[in-house]
């Protein structure tokens, strides 16, 4: 999430328009969303996700075409699913859910959302720590066990980085926001430079030589890990749904409600093709170059960037991880704040989120599972977006109560809970028991949740 979007969220959470539609005087044109999303999607996660495609055995042709199609689908989802509802209601995600589900059920959603945010922030703390350790000769290794530790020195660096990030997140974002807005264009340039440097290191001088070096890298990975495969359609689905919590799950209603019209839905387009296309591919080239030069198949963001562009890369990885983890900790803290009494300090939730994120960052294997995690994230949170979709478009047409909790004075709409939990439970079963790739479960769970909510509300009415 970009710092501009955090500023918008801060407006909301400080009491301005938190429970009312955004007034016309505060609405923004669609072009103002382009820079915001560019900063969000060319950040710390790109250094981690990009190399994982090669490590997962993806072919370069599949990667280039699959990312193209998947990112287009993601942009269309923001434009035609999220933006129209955001512009129509001009309410935050949380207040919309409260009107439908009730304030007590929204607290449960907030806690789940906050925990998932913490795991994402933890991965970014790991990314920054991987770069901090390079000048001190501290290695970053990924243990076999998901909850295995790296070296004690690296764990100490993670704790220090996490502590600093939590303190900054609790203090506010004015300075960090300005810094991140200046750093975002520079980071995008560094991503491109890393890709070009990696091509030079591999001695690539033609398309055929690039394909050859890429395939050699995949072969080395498979020789070490066994045959792995990340095919074309898996790439398409992953790149489409890695942000499912934001578009299918409607989290970006909170941001797009500031838009004058639905064209704000095109805002993610630059971010998608700078971050989730160019940056991912450039980051994957760094791993291919590392394999050629050293035979090392580990996707260590700090080491990869250091090898490609030296100190510039180290600084970029630290900043990229920082500017992603800080707002993520902040958003998780806002979600956790509902657990504390009204008298608790405003930063209580942020401190809790920072502690959880730091603990997650100590386990490096979690960051290496980002391809699975973001799909899992979308599977868990996406179905709530289906409930919002049904409430907005179908409630009146199908003759059941729109904004049920608000209209009935309910604090806990059991129909929403069932429509959310049942599809997610089934999705979790297929993911963990049957080995289904997590991103594959997002849309089936979203559709199932939408249908279930309609059926339960109709039965409840009868």
Describe, in plain words, how this protein is organized in 3D.
The structure is a single chain. With 462 residues, this protein is mainly α. The chain has a single domain (3-369), classed as Hydantoin permease, CATH 1.10.4160. Helices cover 72% and strands 0% of the residues. Helix 2 packs parallel to helix 12 and helix 7 crosses helix 14 (311-336). The longest helix is centred in the N-terminal third of the chain and has 30 residues, at 60-89. Mean pLDDT is 87; it is low at 1-15.
What key phrases describe this protein's structure?
Hydantoin permease; globular; mainly alpha; 462 residues
Low-confidence stretches: 1-15
CATH topology tier name: Hydantoin permease
What is the strand tally? 0
Largest sheet: none
Topology:
Blueprint: H1 3-13, H2 32-41, H3 44-55, H4 60-89, H5 93-101, H6 103-132, H7 152-171, H8 174-202, H9 207-225, H10 232-241, H11 253-256, H12 268-294, H13 301-309, H14 311-336, H15 348-361, H16 364-367, H17 370-393, H18 404-408, H19 414-432, H20 442-461
Helix pairs in contact: 1-8, 2-12, 3-6, 3-12, 4-10, 4-12, 5-6, 6-7, 6-13, 6-14, 6-15, 6-17, 7-14, 7-15, 8-12, 8-14, 9-12, 12-13, 13-14, 14-15, 17-19, 17-20, 19-20
Brief digest:
By secondary structure, the chain is mainly α. It has helices at 3-13, 32-41, 44-55, 60-89, 93-101, 103-132, 152-171, 174-202, 207-225, 232-241, 253-256, 268-294, 301-309, 311-336, 348-361, 364-367, 370-393, 404-408, 414-432, 442-461.
């Amino acid at each position: 999430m970009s710092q501009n979007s955090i500023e918008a969220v801060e407006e909301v959470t400080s009491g301005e328009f938190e429970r009312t539609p955004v007034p016309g005087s505060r609405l923004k044109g669609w072009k103002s969303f382009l820079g915001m999303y560019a900063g969000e999607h060319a950040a710390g996660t790109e250094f981690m996700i990009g190399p994982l495609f090669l490590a997962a055995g993806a072919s370069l042709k599949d990667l280039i075409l699959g990312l193209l199609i998947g990112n287009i689908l993601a942009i269309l989802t923001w434009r035609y699913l999220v933006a129209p509802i955001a512009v129509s209601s001009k309410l935050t995600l949380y207040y919309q859910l409260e009107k439908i589900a009730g304030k007590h059920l929204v607290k449960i959603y907030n806690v789940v959302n906050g925990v998932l945010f913490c795991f994402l922030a933890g991965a970014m703390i790991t990314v920054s720590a991987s770069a901090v350790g390079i000048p001190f000769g501290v290695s970053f290794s990924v243990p076999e066990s998901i909850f295995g530790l790296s070296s004690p020195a690296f764990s100490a660096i993670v704790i220090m980085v996490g502590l600093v990030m939590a303190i900054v997140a609790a203090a506010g974002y004015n300075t960090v926001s300005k810094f991140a807005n200046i750093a975002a264009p520079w980071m995008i340039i560094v991503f491109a430079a890393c890709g070009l440097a990696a091509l030079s290191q591999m001695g690539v001088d033609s398309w055929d030589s690039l394909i050859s070096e890429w395939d050699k890298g995949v072969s080395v990975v498979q020789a070490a890990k066994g045959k792995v495969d990340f095919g074309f359609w898996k790439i398409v689905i992953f790149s489409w749904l890695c942000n499912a919590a934001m578009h299918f799950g409607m989290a970006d209603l909170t941001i797009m409600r500031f838009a004058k019209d639905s064209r704000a839905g095109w805002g993610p387009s630059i971010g998608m093709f700078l971050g989730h296309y160019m940056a991912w591919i450039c980051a994957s080239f760094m791993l291919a170059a590392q394999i050629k030069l050293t035979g090392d198949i580990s996707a260590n963001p700090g080491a990869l960037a250091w090898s490609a562009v030296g100190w510039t890369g180290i600084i970029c990885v630290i900043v990229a991880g920082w500017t992603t983890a800080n707002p993520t900790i902040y958003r998780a803290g806002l979600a956790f704040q509902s657990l504390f009494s009204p008298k608790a300090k405003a930063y209580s939730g942020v401190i809790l989120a920072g502690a959880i994120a730091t603990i997650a960052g100590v386990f490096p294997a979690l960051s290496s599972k980002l391809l699975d995690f973001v799909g899992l994230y979308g599977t868990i949170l996406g179905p709530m977006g289906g409930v919002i979709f049904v409430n907005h478009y179908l409630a009146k047409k199908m003759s059941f109560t729109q904004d049920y909790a608000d209209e009935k004075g309910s604090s806990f709409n059991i129909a929403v809970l069932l429509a959310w939990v049942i599809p997610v439970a089934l999705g979790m079963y297929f993911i963990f028991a049957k080995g289904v790739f997590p991103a594959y479960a997002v849309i089936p769970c979203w559709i199932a949740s939408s249908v279930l909510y309609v059926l339960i509300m109709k039965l409840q009415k009868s």
